[in-house]
UniProtKB/TrEMBL annotation:
Keywords: Methyltransferase, Transferase. GO terms for molecular function: 5-methyltetrahydropteroyltriglutamate-homocysteine S-methyltransferase activity. It comes from the Bacteria. InterPro entries: Met_Synth_C/arc, UROD/MetE-like_sf. Residues 23-351 form the Cobalamin-independent methionine synthase MetE C-terminal/archaeal domain. GO terms for biological process: methylation. The keyword NADP does not apply. This is 5-methyltetrahydropteroyltriglutamate--homocysteine S-methyltransferase. Its EC number is 2.1.1.14. Gene3D superfamilies: 3.20.20.210.
């Protein structure tokens, strides 16, 4: 059992990503961004004018992140409508389309949009490379963090895969090769902190999800192996100085969710079978289960980012209660392997969570203040 967080244990880490006080990445779109997107859709401004407005707003929110004390800064996904589709449809062989209905969440549904596989998957170029380069250019002494969906998201969200690929193995092979190229391209653009966002794992956390998996033709254990191998193969050739983290999410749309269940059923795979440098994990309410699955963490070089502060609602959690929860987690994982963040971003889609911008910044300040008290 590790020492209590109140013992004054000296912080021996946290100087490289993920940081002691970190965040998942997306931020509430500003009113100016929302207005500019409507103007672009109406034909009142062109793409260059929209991008100039995005640049200005990204500079503003990056400066705000620096001001409140975050070490990792993001562009807040200000150029995106979706956390996953915008990137996936930029891959060769993938196109966006409008299905009959949107994605279902608890008591709500997203607008209708999706991606489909129309040809062999590959990566030759991507508009988000320029997005990262802009972020990198304004990061200064801070670390520019960029987020992209895990390759598993095309596996679970891509339509028409079987019309292009005869086997799962063939599809996964091309997908991982495309991701290898993408990761190298972001690295060459200067990226040293890359996060993969992944809701696919949440299917494995509940019996309801497992039933859906079986109906799709897979056994849950088979699918968890595919998910792990896909990620590991995609990041296998990354340079030593590129830190790659994985954010496992149960859905985040307008303060709602899509998945439930703890990590226990696939904990050994997640904590010991993934070759990532860190895991951003949801622990903000009872849907995520207890910290007990963390007992399966055997790697001393794996950082666990505890998402015990919610991005779904504006009320600040009691600081002492959060410190107590960190202390509980440290019974399973050494305190020096733990970090703190909100459980998810504040706007996984452009609609954003039901929270104000001021409340968003106060949440992030809360993360920073608590982390400074814990890791002295």
């Amino acid at each position: 059992m590790s020492k209590s967080v109140t013992s004054g244990l000296k912080n021996k880490g946290g100087t490289v990503p993920p940081f002691r006080a970190d965040h998942v990445g997306s931020l509430l779109r500003s009113a100016r961004i929302e207005k500019a997107r409507l103007q672009k859709a109406a034909g009142d401004i062109n793409s260059a004018e929209l991008r100039a407005i995005e640049d200005t707003e990204i500079i503003r929110i990056v400066e705000k992140q620096k001001e409140i004390g975050l070490e990792a800064i993001t562009d807040g996904d200000f150029r995106r409508a979706w956390w996953h589709f915008d990137f996936l449809e930029g891959l060769d062989g993938v196109e966006g389309f409008v299905p009959e209905k949107g994605l279902e969440f608890h008591n709500t549904v997203t607008k209708a949009y999706g991606v489909k596989v129309t040809g062999k998957i590959d990566f030759t170029d991507h508009p988000m490379l320029e997005d990262y380069k802009f972020l990198h250019s304004i990061a200064e002494s801070h670390t520019a963090k960029f987020t992209i969906p895990s390759p598993n998201m095309l596996f679970v969200r891509g339509k028409n895969i079987k019309e292009i690929y005869d086997t799962t193995e063939g599809f996964v092979h091309d997908l991982t090769i495309a991701y290898k190229k993408a990761i190298r391209a972001f690295y060459d653009a200067g990226c040293r902190y890359l996060q993969l966002d992944d809701t696919a794992w949440s299917q494995l956390f509940s019996e309801e999800g497992n039933s859906l998996i079986r109906r799709s033709g897979f056994a849950p254990v088979e699918l968890s192996t595919i998910f792990a191998n896909t990620i590991n193969e995609a990041i296998a050739d990354r340079p030593d100085d590129l830190k790659v983290t994985l954010h496992i999410c149960r859905g985040n749309f307008q303060s709602s969710y899509s998945g439930t269940g703890g990590y226990e059923t696939v904990s050994e795979t997640i904590f010991n079978g993934l070759d990532v440098d860190g895991l951003f994990l949801e622990f903000d309410d009872e849907r995520s289960g207890s910290f007990e699955p963390l007992r399966h963490v055997k790697r001393s070089n794996l950082q666990i980012v505890l998402g015990v502060i919610t991005s779904k609602f504006g009320e600040l959690e009691d600081a002492d209660a959060i410190k107590k929860r960190i202390n509980e987690a440290s019974e399973y994982v050494d305190l020096n392997q733990l970090c703190l963040s909100p459980q998810c971003g504040f706007a996984s889609t452009e609609e954003g969570n039901l929270i104000t911008e001021e409340e968003q910044w106060e949440k992030l300040k809360h993360v920073i203040t608590i982390s400074k008290d814990v890791w002295k």
